[in-house]
Amino acid sequence: MAPSAATARRGLVLIALTVAVLAAAIGAVLIEQPGLPREERLSTSDVLRIIGSRIPLVGKAIDVSDIRPAHVNRVLTLRVPRVLLAILVGAALAVAGAVMQSFFQNPMASPYILGIASGASLGATAAFAAGLGAVAGQTAPSVCAFAGAIGVTFLVYALARRGGRINTTLLLLTGIAVGTFAGAVAYLLMFLFTQQTIGQVLAWIMGTLNNCGWRDVAIVGPVTIVGVAFTRMYARDLNVMLMGSETAHHLGVHVERTRLVLLIASSLLTAVAVAAVGIVGFVGLVVPHVMRLIVGPDHRVLIPASILGGALLVLGADVAVRAVFHEQVPLGVLTTLVGCPFFILLLTRREKTFI
């Protein structure tokens, strides 16, 4: 395919993904909970008026006085932040996955490969064990989960660093070992809990957007935006590093520094996403892999495509959780149930390639 044709095709893919994300976001805001009484349901025009009334400059011209305050509150404090958080979490996990797959030059790598998910689980479980959830609400488990994820990341990095260099094989094996250990400790703490507390921990671990609000968006949003933008700045270095460390060094890339920066950025993206909504499986594994097959390995395009693909997957899964399963199926379980067969299908239909 000619370079101009390839560039045009990639541009069309990004436009199509953008339109799909916008459509999914609008649909997610408009969708009503199944079983809701007719008098409690909001029409499409009412929902759009409520949202429009909060848009600067034009919002004052939109009258929503005929809509009950409880309905306005339901849209603005429940639906809108939930949709925004789904977009942010999907983007963070997908970009982190793309970085990890390039870091290890392995399409099987995921954001959780260094034990971040296990560290977050341990932190959240410890918070529930100490009774912090009852004292400080959802904030304490989220903060402890973030601390656990970051703590495990830096422990793995410290153990895998040799002579000022990062050995990727040692980093991978150390991540698996430390993650397994942290997961075992988390399960041990769960075993010592009451049945009620086990249910709370499992609900968090399986991933959910329930009970999320503007506070979560205010925390996850800035970290995700800065982390994604920072990662995009290193797109050229990621492209060069695909050719090998020695080649990248000769082409002017400070390999070790770049690896450390990208490791920190991807770990922060994963940690903040997991701390907010729990473990959402397969997003960081499937989305970058699929986007790489569609747009190619150029990270200048792959990262934006992963942002949109991750947002679309999490948004779609959350809509299904709400509309089809009545919020009885955790978000992380559904993304894994959908992502795993799809990923196996991809592996059986294509030869294993990366670059």
Tally of helical segments: 15
Low-confidence stretches: none
Shape: globular
Secondary-structure-derived class: mainly alpha
Biggest pleated sheet = 2 strands, antiparallel
Number of domains: 1
Distance between termini? 17 Å
Rg on CA atoms, Å = 21 Å
The top-level CATH class is Mainly Alpha
How is this structure best described in words?
This protein is mostly helical. The chain has a single domain, classed as ABC transporter involved in vitamin B12 uptake, BtuC (Orthogonal Bundle), CATH 1.10.3470. Helix content is 74%, strand content 1%. It has 15 helices and two strands. The chain has helices spanning 3-30, 44-52, 69-104, 116-129, 132-136, 139-160, 168-191, 195-205, 214-233, 235-241, 245-250, 255-277, 283-295, 299-323, 331-349; strands spanning 161-162, 165-166. It has a two-stranded antiparallel sheet with strand order 1-2. The longest helix is centred in the first third of the chain and has 36 residues, at 69-104.
Would you spell out the secondary-structure blueprint of this structure?
Elements (H helix, E strand, L loop, with lengths): L2 H28 L13 H9 L16 H36 L11 H14 L2 H5 L2 H22 E2 L2 E2 L1 H24 L3 H11 L8 H20 L1 H7 L3 H6 L4 H23 L5 H13 L3 H25 L7 H19 L6
Antiparallel strand pairs: 1-2
